[in-house]
Every structure is written in structure tokens, then in C-alpha cells.
Amino acid sequence: MKAESNHRRRAWVEVDLGAIRRNAERLAGLRPGCRLLPMVKADGYGLGAWRVARAVSPLDVWALGVATADEGAALRSAGYAGRIVVFSPLPSHDAADLLEHGLEPAITSLAALEAFGVAASRTARALPVHLELDTGMGRLGLPAGDVRSWSGELGRVLAAHPLSLASTFTHFHSADSDEAATRRQWREFQTALQGLREAGIDPGLSHAANSAAALRYKEFAPDMIRPGIALYGGGVGSNLVPERVVSVCARVIDVRDVPAGQTVSYGATYRASARSRLATLAIGYADGLRLELSNRGSVLLRGRRAAIRGAVCMDVTVVDVTGFQDVGVGDIATVLGCDGDEEITLQELASECRTIEYEILTGLSPRLPRVAIENG
After folding, report:
1. What is the pLDDT along the chain (376 residues), one digit of tens a residue?
2. Residue of 41, 80, 217, 232 marked catalytic
């Protein structure tokens, strides 16, 4: 965007809704007929859950996935009327809100199923639920390998309350790095699904494939996929390179020439080795520009890379524009995204910060306005 509509902004995030939609279409196209459960938790990975919901609404979306009941209620307040699955609900606190807002909980234990069943019985409202099976993640879900020990109680609670099992799912822990472990989890999941059927329980739709699995193992998406990071331009896999969705931009607020020996920023961790021209950008770690980029990262200005000099500050960051043509106050630097033929990718930025793409996106501060655009 980088245009006049942003002339009053010091720094901002651009969100390409068309790219989100096309990424979702391509993911669904990896296995024709496969349904979509896009993950929009953490406010759409920091980009705005309602924006993402709008972007994917023209597609055949079976449901949206969130982490908390509050996230689901916020989508309802924004006007989203479709199915919403809450993957990390608190049974003792969230049951009333789930029922009030028409949200559907993931079930991670028999105690949770009972709590939601009792709440549904009190209101006489039917409540679809989604059963999580633990095949190796070790954090939530009923143990897939012990399905015979708990399937009877599961069936009893389902029959005793106005509950319906809409889907059964598991979560791969290393789909992007360990094929053998992923295949073991898949086999255990399939065995558990068969155990449920033998116990007279219809597991509903089955789903296991997150972004990493959907990109690498088409056979692990028989009914549905739960794309997350790949929607937002990350999680590059062997079958698809997602389109870039996010750009982060900041304005130049100062340009100055400094002599050799000039120190820069807190701690004086950078000292100019020769006469230099430095530009100060209106973005810092309070905006989500990571401190790890101090003296190691770069931004794009006028189609060239400008190295970050000194420590990233809370509100501003200094870059080296020695030899650049006509850099001035008001110019726009690209922290993430494209400028001319140069690009700083989400993957590159995460690597520079020694973290993961998810943390880069969810770490973008609310102080940065999100600007929705279409088709770049």
C-alpha cells in the first residue's frame, strides 16, 4: 500500500486479504473435497480475526477455529454467524458463554465432557462437541491408545445429555520435521477412530492436518484440514509456497550525517567506522520489532537493504543509509515485505530473531494499525 492513505501513520501493518483467500484456496485444493477449518486464534495470528473471517468467507469454510471462548464471542459480536470451534475452553467457566454465543467446545477429558453436558442439559440446548485424541503431543486430549478404557464412559455421557460428536481430531507435533513420528501419530489416530466405531460411537468428521501436515501429506486430510500459519504466508512446504500476506512499514523521522566514531543507541553497541548517514525509523520493540534484530537485522529503503545499527529501542530504530539516494524524513521503510526487487520474508525475519514465524506475527503490537488491502 505505502501510499497517501497512510500519510499520518508512523508505522503500520498491511494485511493482504486476497492473499489469505488464495492461500486457503490452494490449501483446500491439495485434496479436492477436503473441508477447511481455518485457525483464527490470537486475533487471526495478530492480523484481525474478523478480517481473516471476511477474507475466507467466500470459500467453503466448515468452521473457524479459536483458542478461547472470548475469541469466539468477539467474532459473534463482529457479526460472524458461521460455526466456531473453541479449542482450549475452560469447562468450569466457559460453558454458559459457549451456549449463549453458539460456540462449540473441543473436549479434552471426560470431566470436561460431563461439565459441558450438564450445562447443555440445564439450558436444553443441543451442543456439538469436538473430541481431541492425544497421539503424542502430550498436552491435551484423551489417550488414543487407551480408547477401550474410556469409550464406554464417553458414550454414556453423550447419551445422557443433549450433546453430539461433530468431529474427532488429533494434533501432529512434528509434521514439518519428523515424517516417521507423524506417520506413527496418524496410525494411532486411525486405530482410535476405529475403536470408537466399534464401541458404537460415530466420531463425526476426522481431522489432523495442521499447515505443516497439509503441505506435506495429502493423505492425512481425509475430511478436513486446520490451516494456520500457511494462511498467513508462513510454513513453506514442499507442495505450496504461500503468498505473502503481511507487510510491516515504518516512516523515516530523522536523517543525519555522523562522523567516524559516532556511537548509536542504548549501550553504544555500534560505533561508526567511517563517516555515515543514519536514518531513524518510527518503529521499535513496543511495536513488535524484535530486540534480537539489534546490530543484525535490516530493513528495505528505496529498494535496498539498510542495516540496523545499534540496539532496537522501544519506539524508534536506527538504520544505515550511507550511499543511498535522497533518503528523507517521511520516506517509508519496509521491515517485512517487498520493496522493488528486494524482500524480507516472514521466514527470514523469524530466522534472524532465532524464533518461529508464529511469534513474529502474534508479537506485532496493537499500536501498529492493521490496514486491509486486496491483491497487493
Report:
1. 454 456 679 999 999 999 999 999 999 888 888 899 999 999 999 999 999 999 999 998 999 999 999 999 999 999 999 999 999 999 888 899 999 999 999 999 999 999 999 999 999 889 999 999 999 999 999 999 999 999 999 999 999 999 999 999 999 999 989 999 999 999 999 999 999 999 999 999 999 999 999 888 888 888 899 999 999 999 876 567 789 999 999 999 999 999 999 999 999 999 999 999 999 999 999 999 999 999 999 999 999 999 999 999 999 999 999 999 899 999 999 999 999 999 999 999 999 999 999 999 999 999 999 999 986 5
2. 41
Indicate the domain borders of the chain.
Answer: 31-232, 246-373
| CATH for the 31-232 domain, from 2.60.120.1680, 3.30.110.40, 3.20.20.10, 3.40.50.1220 | 3.20.20.10
Q: Which of 80, 266, 285, 358 is labelled catalytic? A: 266
Q: What are phi and psi of 79, to 5 degrees?
A: 110, 5
Task: Check if CATH label 3.40.50.2000 holds for domain 246-373.
Answer: no
> Does the active-site annotation cover 218?
no
Active site residue 217: no
CA gyration radius, the chain: 24
